[in-house]
Amino acid sequence: MSNNYKPAIRKQKAVLGTSAKVIIALLVVIVITLAAFLIKIIASQALKPNIVYPPERPDTETEETPHTRAEVTEEETSLETRTVDGSRYDTSDGTLILVNGKTAYSMPADKEKELVNLFEERHENFTLSNSNVTLSRVCYEALCRMTDSYAERFGYCPLMLTSGYRDSAAQQAFYDDFVVNESDKVYVELPGYSDHHTGLCFDVKLYDSGGNSYSYGRYATEKAAWIVENYKYYGFIMRYPANKGSFTGIEGESNHFRYVGMPHSLYITNKGICLEEYLNLLRSHPASDPLTIVTEDGDEYEVWYCPSDSLTVPRDLPYTVSGDNRGGLIVTCRK
Length: 335
Ligand SMILES: [Zn+2]
Prior knowledge:
Helices cover about 40% and strands about 20% of the residues. The protein is α+β, with helices and mostly antiparallel strands. The protein has a domain at about 105-260: Muramoyl-pentapeptide Carboxypeptidase, domain 2. The chain has 11 helices and 14 strands. The protein starts with a helix and ends with a strand. The structure holds zinc ion.
């Protein structure tokens, strides 16, 4: 019996020894896995560049690559960038601000004081339907450049401005005057939501040297063909193109010019999109993947979107920054 008992104990000891080895081996594997995981986290923190990208880039956010995101930036754009304090820029200021039925805007009083009354300024190459048309200076100067070019070629420019900047009270008066039937509401915004609050747009008619006036929409291609073909080169867009009412909130209104500046006006017009679509597109172009715009003269621009708390700008090249009036900033860099 004792002979049979001893081997049984030895066998039990052997089984216990094997179990202990398996447990130890498992513990070692767990410890190594945990250590590797910790080292990876520490390494990734140490490599993280001083650039914070907007959250709309799931491909770079989820990418697990050994190189840093700063290297990705250089590979894709060959543009050296740096992150600066974006708080000194107002996201509701600049030539790319969006104002529509969903996005309100009110011009600050100090900016309102800087508006130009066109009746009091030089306006020899365009006419005014009244003495109250006012615009921001950047829009006025672009208008002068465009109408001066027209007059140089043809002697007389038939653009007549009927309305420019409108504050809330002026928009209310315009709305009350304009909306006779319910169907009229698709052509005009409520006070607080009009593009005319920006000071960057104006409505036009055509006025010939014989004193006859025409609607721009119907006669533009016949009586102002050069304007139709060239406004994009002077920073202007059609703010309310036909068939874009689902984006803009306003049905086609071809007599409303909006200044956004170059190269944005060129891109928007050539692509046949509206300002809403353009700004939505830019949201998918952070500094690491900018939108490249090349003009017909070969000038190259890079344009990208930044959230206001993380502004990425070119390290060495000149740039401009505009708010989008939706909490973001647009950087435009000429290469
Ligand atoms: Zn208008």
